[in-house]
Amino acid sequence: MTLPALALFLQDATPDSSASPLTSLPPAVHSSAILEMLHNSGPTAITVLALLLLCSILSWSVMLSKWASFKRADRQNARFLRAFRKSTRLSEISAVAEQFRPSPLVAVFNEINDEYQRQSGGRGTPPNPAAMERAALIASSECLTRMEKRMTWLATIAQVAPFIGLFGTVMGVIDAFHGLGTAGAATLRAVAPGISEALITTAAGLFVAIPALIAYNQFTARIQIFAARTDDFCRELMNSMEEIPVRAPAPAPRAISPEPPTEVDRGLYK
Questions:
Q1: In a domain, 190, yes or no
Q2: If you ran DSSP here, which 8-state letter would residue 252 be given?
Q3: How many domains in the chain?
């Protein structure tokens, strides 16, 4: 065989070093490997993964419900503010306020309006604005408390899920090294499958915790925005009530009854 032919033969027989063995594997091999590791996982890893699955279902249910309720509250807030600024009488706003019930501004308006009706009967400026401000603060606090309901579940899952996954990883590594000591074969091929199965729980914990943490931060920011809008609406409503002119009803004229005749008068008329 000539030298050029030998060189061509060696070039064809040498594998391409630029191609990684991982990249040469099709995607189905990776997915089947993950499924195989899940199938071969021990009871501890299966329990941890099941617990993380429950946490994920709970967190996503809270996230979807909060997203829908906040979106509905935003839409009703905008509609109620347009109706409030177009109207010139509180009675008109009170009549249509129930149409915007998901809006937290409606509860604040109803509380302030009820206090205003108790104080002045719907006429003139309120005699005790401080009491109306306290009523507005109570209503705003109640609305924000309802918005923050079940938010603690997101915070708890975001903080606990990585530690649950880490617990499964630690237990899996312990089992892998225990099996390695029992087998007596100190090779990477013997310990790698057990460690890779154990690391699945850590990945699952992060997969559950990261969306819950992002949603908690986003929802907390939106609740702060709702609180600021509620405070601004309270000030706007109080200013509009203080600008109402005093329309106190004029006192009705009293009929003057004739005085009874005195003794002198009786003597004059005799």
A1: yes
A2: P
A3: 1
Residue partners of 155: CB distance under 8 A and separation at least 6: 212, 216
In a domain, 175, yes or no: yes
Round to whole Å and give the CA distance between 157 and 59: 7
Rounded-to-integer distance, Cα 195 and Cα 174, Å: 9
Residue 200 resides in a domain: yes
> Which residues constitute the domain of residue 236?
42-244
Contact 205, 166 (CB under 8 A): yes
Q: What is the pLDDT of residues 29-77, one digit of tens each?
A: 455 655 666 655 667 788 888 999 999 999 999 999 999 999 999 998 8
In a domain, 50, yes or no: yes
- What are the DSSP calls for 21-81, one per residue? TTTTS-HHHHHHHHHHHHHT--HHHHHHHHHHHHHHHHHHHHHHHHHHHHHHHHHHHHHHH
The angle, 0 to 180 degrees and rounded to 10, between the axes of the packed helices 188-242 and 43-86 is: 20
In the chain, which residues have pLDDT < 50?
A: 1-29, 245-253, 255-256, 264-270
